[in-house]
Structure formats: structure tokens, C-alpha cells
DNA sequence: CACTAATTTTAATCCGGATTAAAATTTTCG
DNA sequence: CGAAAATTTTAATCCGGATTAAAATTAGTG
């Protein structure tokens, strides 16, 4: 079976998922150029060449990591929106979920630092998803302003600030559960405090 | 004259500074592995090999970019502290200065995404400076809490959030002056709002 | 057990971009 | 102008890590 095969077995998918997490951890901690496929492979008790059984190459690996990151961001925002409530409440819930995803059992989420080195199609796809996510979050802020739950503010810039704070998490969070608790408790609180009318 | 020579002329220093900015722009926009020395050289109308007249190599170039970033962070914080006032006021002033540095005429400031790929001595130096800067900012927040100008909060986490928001700026700011204005106006406001008692 | 598919390894190859050396050009300044 | 220093280029070399191919091992299945 080739790695592009969609009829993958359960064990295959599991290992592929573990591969993506290991890669995300490496990329976040050692940088893209700083991590060789060997580094990633070692974490799974494999040889570098074995990775090619699961993925087409290093670029593809980055792409998959970014897709996974995009999935998580989208899912947390969608869930927060689905749960309903005021704009403020939705934004806060999203932050809770997303910070928890970063610090919790979702394992490391890749920082999108190497989008430009992706293949053109992949690059466009990731960029589009990334922008869409930002626009969706900004829409939540807009709703909050309209329903009076969020102070009138520059939505684009405020969104940039919040996204930056969250996206930066992997830079200082390295798995310590005590720190995870602090983050989950503090981040949504602090970031939303500045949005109260 | 060798690039390690300290008795450098004015023109040499100027060009070296331009080199660092060009490199920071490339690294921020195309990632470390995504930018070749040729990319950087082209921005200065030079050939890739010419870069070695100003810098020992790619690692050294990254190191210098990071040192420059550290300098700017330190300088803005020092200035804010020197100007005095409550903890809240100092923190706010620091944010104004630092955001302005990111978006203004200081040119692009490198995001420290590739610290692990530095040479060990350089890596340690950058890490130390980076940690020191964080601790210094946290100290400002502590002062604010003590003097009653800042709400009681988890200083470490709040600092992480603020630093993340600021450090992420180069991800979305690409030189548009109108955007720069928005950022300078919005960022300190929003980020400090959450700290009011 | 024997046979086939799945998984991993070993052992090359390959290649882009960093680096170097020497030559050429430009600048400085008497 | 002309010599020495400064700057840049041209033309290799060099190398680490990605990638590939084929062989070996392991797991599943009748």
C-alpha cells in the first residue's frame, strides 16, 4: 500500500497521527531546518527512511502538520459558535477550547512558520484556511460588538493580538501539566478582560 | 579588512545593518530554510558570495538578527522604565515603544524561530537575553500589582500572552503604513485594558 | 505451516545551497 | 594619475540531509 492510499488501516492511521505530532514537536522546538527526518523518526523508534512509508516527504510532512493545526483551530471555533451565546461568550469559549488544545492532550500543534516553503498548491490552501479562520474569529468579535457584549474596538488588530498570543503558546509550553493549568486558567481571562465594554 | 574586524568604517556598518534588515525580512516572510543567502543578497543588489564579506555565514547572520531583535526589545523596555511612573504606565509605554519599533522605521525585527539551530554559545546567549527580557517585563507587571495600578494576575502567563501578541506582529505586518497606525493605536490599548484593576 | 501483504532497514544516490578561493572591479587618497 | 585597500564577482568545491531502491524483517491469514 502506498501512503497516498485512502483505504488505510487503523494502525496505519494511528502511527501516522503519532508521526505528525512528533514532527510538530520537533518543528516547534528545533525549527524546520533544524529538524531532520531522522530526528522525527527517532521519536517513533524508526529509521529516517521509514517515514516515507507514511508520508511523501518533508514538505508533505509540514503540510500535514499545518493541516492538522488548521483543523484544530477550525474545530474549536466551530464548537464555540455552535454552543451559542453572546459574541463575548463565544470568543471566550473559543479561547478556552483552543488554549486547552494547545496545552492538553491534543499534543503539540505546529506553529505555521514555514508556509512559504510549501509547494504552491499546499501553500495556497493553508493560507486560505488561515485567513478564513482569522475572518471567522473577527466575525465573532463583530457580533459581540453588535450585541453589546464586547467593547467597540479595531476588530482586525484585536484579532491579531489575540491570535498572536495563542499561536505563540508552543514557544514556551513544553508539556508541563502545572503550566498547562496556569495557561488554561489565565489566558482566556486576560485576553477577554480587555474586551469588556 | 575582515568582517570580524572591529575597526569598521561607517559605510561598512551601514551596509551591514541593511544586510541584517534584509535578512530579518526574508527570515520572517520565507522562513529560515526557505531563504537562501542569494535571496538576501539580491535585496541588496549583491551576489550571494558577497555576503561573506560582512558576515561569517548563515548561522552568524541569524545570530546577528536575533541580537538586533534582543537589543531593540531591551532598549524599549529600558527606556520605558527610565521614563518612570506606575507599573501600569511603564508597561504601557513599553508596548507603545516596542510595537512602534516593529511597525516603524526600525525595519523588520526577526522572529526568533530558529534559536536551536544556532551554535551552542550563540544559542545560550540568545536564550539568556530572551529570558532576561521576559523576567524584566514580568518585574514591571509585579511593580504594577504592588503599586495598585495593575490587577492581581498570574504575571508569568500574562507576560507570555503579551509577548506572544507582540512577537507575532511580523507574521501579519508587512510594511503598510496604514496598518502600522492601526497597530500602534490598538495594541497597547487592548493589551493594557485587561490589566486594569 | 506456507504464503502474501505490511512494515522497516540498509545502503546507496542526489542535490541545492552554503562555503571557499582566487580573480576582477571599484574606491580611496597620496 | 597610480598604488593600496575595500568591495564584489566568478567559478569551483563541499556537504548534510532528503530521497530512492532493493533487501530484510515482521505480521496477518488461509
Please describe what this structure looks like.
Two copies of one chain form a homodimer. Chain A has 197 residues and is mainly α. Helix content of chain A is 67%, strand content 0%. In chain A, helix 1 crosses helix 3. The longest helix of chain A has 27 residues. The first copy, chain A, is elongated and about 55 Å long. The N terminus of chain A is likely disordered. At the A-B interface, helix 6, helix 7 and helix 8 of A face helix 6, helix 7 and helix 8 of B. The first copy, chain A, binds a DNA duplex (30 and 30 nucleotides) through helix 1.
- The 3D shape of chain A can be described as elongated
> Into which percent range does the helicity of residues of chain A fall?
55-70%
Secondary structure: number of strands of chain A? 0
Strand content of chain A: under 5%
What does the oligomeric state look like here?
homodimer
- Structural class of the helices, strands and pairings of chain A? mainly alpha
Instruction: Quote the average pLDDT of chain A.
Output: 93
Instruction: Write down the secondary-structure element order of chain A.
Output: HHHHHHHH
What's the tally of helices of chain A? Answer: 8
Unreliable spans of chain A:
1-6
Q: Report the radius of gyration of chain A as a whole number of Å.
A: 18 Å
From the N-terminal CA to the C-terminal CA of chain A, the straight-line distance is: 57 Å
Q: What does the largest sheet of chain A look like?
A: none
Topology:
2 copies of one chain form a homodimer.
Chain A: H1 10-30, H2 37-43, H3 58-83, H4 87-103, H5 120-146, H6 155-167, H7 169-172, H8 177-193
Helix pairs in contact in A: 1-2, 1-3, 3-4, 3-5, 4-5, 4-8, 5-6
Chain A binds a DNA duplex (30 and 30 nucleotides) through residues 1, 9, 11-12, 15, 36-38, 46-50, 52-53, 57-58.
Amino acid at each position: 500500500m502506498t501512503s497516498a492510499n485512502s483505504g488505510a488501516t487503523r494502525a496505519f492511521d494511528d502511527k501516522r497521527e503519532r508521526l505528525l505530532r512528533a514532527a510538530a514537536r520537533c518543528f516547534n522546538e528545533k525549527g524546520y531546518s533544524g529538524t531532520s527526518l531522522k530526528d522525527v523518526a527517532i521519536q517513533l523508534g524508526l529509521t529516517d527512511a521509514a517515514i516515507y512509508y507514511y508520508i511523501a516527504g518533508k514538505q508533505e510532512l509540514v503540510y500535514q502538520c499545518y493541516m492538522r493545526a488548521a483543523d484544530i483551530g477550525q474545530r474549536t471555533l466551530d464548537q464555540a459558535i455552535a454552543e451559542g451565546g453572546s459574541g463575548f461568550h463565544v470568543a471566550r469559549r473559543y479561547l478556552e477550547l483552543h488554549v486547552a488544545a494547545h496545552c492538553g492532550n491534543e499534543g503539540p500543534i505546529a506553529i505555521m512558520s514555514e508556509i512559504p516553503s510549501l509547494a504552491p498548491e499546499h501553500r495556497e490552501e493553508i493560507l486560505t484556511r488561515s485567513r478564513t479562520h482569522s475572518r471567522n474569529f473577527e466575525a465573532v468579535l463583530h457580533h459581540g460588538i453588535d450585541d453589546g457584549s464586547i467593547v467597540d474596538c479595531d476588530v482586525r488588530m484585536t484579532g491579531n493580538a489575540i491570535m498572536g498570543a495563542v499561536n505563540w503558546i508552543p514557544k514556551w509550553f513544553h508539556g508541563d501539566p502545572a503550566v498547562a493549568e496556569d495557561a488554561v486558567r489565565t489566558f482566556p481571562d486576560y485576553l477577554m478582560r480587555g474586551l469588556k465594554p
